[in-house]
Amino acid sequence: MSDIELKTYKQEYMNEIISGWNTSLFYDTITHERFTQEVLLDENFDPGLALVAVSGGHVVGFSLGIKRKYPYLTRGLEEGRGWISSFFIIPEYRRKGIGQKLLQKEEALLKARGVKEITLCAYSPNYFTPGVDFKYPGGIPFFDVNGYVRGTDAVSMQRDLFTYTIPENTKKHLYELANKGTTFHMFTKQYMEKLLAFVDKEFGAGWVRNILIALRKGEAEDTILIATDKQDDIIGYCMRKIDGNDARFGPIGVDESLRSEGIGGVLIDIQMEEMKKRSIYYMYFLWTHGDAMRFYERHGLKVYRTYQLYRKKI
């Protein structure tokens, strides 16, 4: 369309971007507050990479490009990597070449900043989805035809907790583990140093960050469950509420040498019981695949969304 202009983000576009986002990305609607916190106040936000498609003075599309300006934990700057964290064209303007024009411009801007590979959606720490939801009409074929290479699938899973009780087989296993000296209990501050060291060794800085945030907010003792051995060392943990939502579960992790002992299964079952005690009657998480998906299925969780992961070398 000849009247389409591609402009960089300005505050005056915010209301129409959010309106268009909620119309187009209807499974991932946002508020002004969330847009402010997770987009505008993200330390890597660059208005020069946030492109707005404008027609007749109104926003009809948006692309949120990201390249790190600040190191992210042990990942550093990831100099050759960029992201398109969110992308939409409002429905009535699709199939007119606008999306193609917007995407090509975004790719060119990222390439000019030294990006050699673009990842769709899965930007840490502030991602909205891990990939492109298969249910969004046109999304998968659009990125396929534009040269994005499919990786694995990923899923989001959930279950309700209204009638949840700890299964009898878990109670039996809990008793067996107790006889070996394994105990499960909510985190207390006396375990802070041990937990941070355990998570750093087994899982890395991203998971440590989640714990640090919970500690700073004064929420760790209510949201983190730990497993300890007979020496009172931490051998596993799980948590919830990493994005501020009480019902969001994860991450969960167990000492690599003990992952066949069923400790993770006991952790998730006890955490679900703890959530129910707190009148949290629903749990979900955003991203898993493969063997982990089967683990969650055994604990009553079901897939509610499926995504395609994508990357493209430029």
Q: Provide a count of the helices.
A: 10
Nearest-angstrom radius of gyration?
A: 22 Å
Task: Report the β-strand fraction as a percent range.
Answer: 25-35%
Return the string of H and E elements.
EHHEEEHEEHEHEHHHEEEHEHE
Query: What is the overall silhouette?
Result: elongated
* Gap between N and C termini: 26 Å
DSSP, total strands: 13
The main β sheet shows up as: 9 strands, mixed
Molecular structure report:
This protein has ten helices and 13 strands. The mean pLDDT is 96. The strands form two sheets. Strands 1, 2, 3, 4, 5, 6, 7, 12 and 13 form a nine-stranded mixed sheet that branches. It has a four-stranded antiparallel sheet with strand order 8-9-10-11, sandwiched between helices. It is 33% helix and 28% strand. A hairpin with a 2-residue loop joins strand 2 (50-55) and strand 3. It is elongated. It is an alpha+beta fold. The longest helix has 15 residues, at 98-112. The protein has helices at residues 14-24, 32-40, 98-112, 139-145, 168-179, 192-202, 205-216, 220-223, 263-277, 290-298; strands at residues 5-8, 50-55, 58-66, 81-89, 117-120, 132-133, 149-160, 183-186, 224-228, 234-240, 249-254, 282-288, 302-313.
